[in-house]
């Protein structure tokens, strides 16, 4: 089961609709166009179009699976006492005094440019269930960082 925000769920539904209503017909058209060019045994354009269609269908099926397993979290019921999924966490890296803010989201909603990190990342895992004022050591690929939790809000 993947817990996510309503916004994240809506984005998945929109992406599924786009793939099924726009990309799937394009893939079929590309196959038909390549098929019209003759001998299929030596038609690399046809093979490429069939492969692209297979990748698209895989993507659609993965998206359907994610949507079927999604559990939308009612953010109004979330607590800011400790860090959990959909918590927006302001923290300080105690090594270099850098301020960081991340929202912990489901894997499908993660987007570092938007400050959204997957609940499965080492930082998110290290922060879960901690409270404001806690100092947490988190193992990341480059070593260990020490973070102080400054503020928790609902993302």
Describe the protein in words.
With 155 residues, the chain is an alpha/beta fold. The chain starts with a strand and ends with a strand. It has helices spanning 6-35, 44-69, 122-127; strands at residues 2-4, 70-72, 87-93, 98-105, 116-118, 135-140, 143-154. Strands 5-4-3-7-6 form a five-stranded mixed beta sheet. Helix 1 (6-35) runs antiparallel to helix 2 (44-69).
List its traits.
155 residues; alpha/beta; 5-stranded mixed sheet; two-stranded parallel ribbon; 7 strands; elongated
| Residue-averaged pLDDT | 92
How much of the polypeptide forms β-strand, as a percent range?
A: 25-35%
The rounded Rg comes to: 22 Å
Poorly predicted tracts of residues: none
* Total beta-strand segments: 7
Q: Judging from the principal axes of the Cα atoms, what is the shape?
A: elongated
Q: How would you summarize what this structure contains?
A:
This protein is α/β, with parallel strands linked by helices and 155 residues long. It has three helices and seven strands; from the N terminus they run βααββββαββ.
Q: What's the helix and strand layout?
A:
Elements (H helix, E strand, L loop, with lengths): L1 E3 L1 H30 L8 H26 E3 L14 E7 L4 E8 L10 E3 L3 H6 L7 E6 L2 E12 L1
Parallel strand pairs: 1-2, 4-5
Antiparallel strand pairs: 3-4, 3-7, 6-7
């Amino acid at each position: 089961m993947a817990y996510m925000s309503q916004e994240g769920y809506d984005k998945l539904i929109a992406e599924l609709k786009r793939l099924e209503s726009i990309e799937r017909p394009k893939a079929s058209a590309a196959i038909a166009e390549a098929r019209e060019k003759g001998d299929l045994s030596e038609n690399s354009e046809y093979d490429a179009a069939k492969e692209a269609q297979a990748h698209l269908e895989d993507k659609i099926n993965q998206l359907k699976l994610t949507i079927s397993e999604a559990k939308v979290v009612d953010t109004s019921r979330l607590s800011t006492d400790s860090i959990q999924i959909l918590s927006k966490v302001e923290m300080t890296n105690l090594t270099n005094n850098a301020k960081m803010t991340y929202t912990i989201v489901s894997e499908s909603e993660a987007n570092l440019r938007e400050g959204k990190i997957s609940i499965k990342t080492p930082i998110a895992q290290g922060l879960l269930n901690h409270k404001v004022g806690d100092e947490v050591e988190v193992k990341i690929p480059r070593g260990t960082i020490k973070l102080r939790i400054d503020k928790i809000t609902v993302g």
